[in-house]
Write a structure and sequence with these properties.
By secondary structure, this protein is α+β, with helices and mostly antiparallel strands. The chain contains 4 helices and 5 strands.
């Protein structure tokens, strides 16, 4: 995929302002089941099941991508709230590498998570700070 094609699918942009709800520092994919469980415990009473599944899917996909491909260093993940939805954001130390959805790959080989997130999200994007890449998706409340 060319840089321009990746940019059109996952644009470089800042996320909307949002209020912190949940946050994690992750070092290994083995931590992801506990993260998913915490999201279910906190959000299940107030979020419908379809929206909750989408939040967990996006968070899990973005966090696992960061842990597998994000270079050396900490991975931070968070869920924040806005008036219209839930902002899922994950950062890793690969500030120079934008998120790149898989192209021309057999779906059985994986790599389609960014496509799924883009289709579910109200808005999505990524930006780089001095030391990190931040990938985000704003998911609807219901």
């Amino acid at each position: 995929m060319t840089g321009q094609a990746a940019e059109s699918l996952w644009p470089s942009s800042s996320p909307p302002a949002a209020e912190q709800l949940l946050q994690w520092q992750l070092a290994d994919v083995a931590e992801l089941p506990a993260m998913r469980g915490r999201v279910r415990r906190v959000l299940q009473p107030t979020v419908d099941s379809d929206a909750l599944d989408q939040i967990i899917l996006a968070l899990d996909e973005m966090a696992s991508n960061a842990l597998r491909h994000g270079g050396v260093g900490p991975v931070e993940a968070s869920i924040r709230t806005t008036d219209t939805g839930y902002l899922v954001e994950v950062s890793d130390s690969a500030a120079a590498r934008p998120p790149t959805p898989a192209v021309d790959r057999d779906p059985s080989q994986g790599g389609l998570g960014l496509y799924l997130i883009a289709r579910m999200a109200l808005r999505h994007g990524w930006y780089a700070s001095a030391r990190a890449k931040h990938v985000w998706a704003l998911l609807p409340r219901s």
